Known about the structure:
By secondary structure, the protein is of the alpha/beta class. It has helices at 39-47, 66-74, 86-89, 93-105, 122-155, 168-177, 185-192, 196-202, 206-211, 217-222, and strands at 25-30, 52-56, 80-83, 109-112, 117-118.
Amino acid sequence: MSDLSGPSGHPELFVAEPLVRTEIKIGYARVSTGGQRLERQIDALTAAGCRKIFSDKKSGKTDLRPELKACHAFLDAGDTLVVPSLDRYGRSLQDLINMVAALRERGIGFTSLHENLDTTTPGGRLVFHVFAALAEFIRELIVQGTREGLAAARARGRVGGRPTVATEEVIRAARDLLPDPGRSITSIAKLLGVSPGTLYNHIPDLRELRAGAVPRQLEASAK
Length: 223
């Protein structure tokens, strides 16, 4: 995992725009329910000047989004990825931060039409800097709340000792922590007082949740 912090300890993911700009825009659209249609998103991306558009038609909660992977692999340094809105791209704040950070590492810009955010501009980079700080704050709150909740549960005798215990609270906390790229599955299991196998057994989409936690995931998909 790469170090995304500067000397001051703050994220410096969006310090400067790509050194070389191709002016090529590539679009990505996604529908989240079976009743939604892609036409409006595609029209917006076309109007924004996208040369090629990738689109996923299944819910991001249950699908690995193959078209997104293909889109990431298609992008070259200097290109800009354009999405209709942030929720069409990232499944969570942390997922969004990780993927845009990976784009930045590859020299690829990112634009969200609905929110009018563009990481090739100083204002857009500032917004994502704030997003990254907010995501870190949320992770710290989750960890703190998880520890306090588990301590209280153990005091009441509901959790302890046995690594196979997987209460609703534990599973919910695990799902919150799994997208965090700074924590391994083993460390999350240890924090929650269960075994890694328990997490795999009780969270069917564990691997998908972890997929959004790897900052270099776009580089891997491009190989």
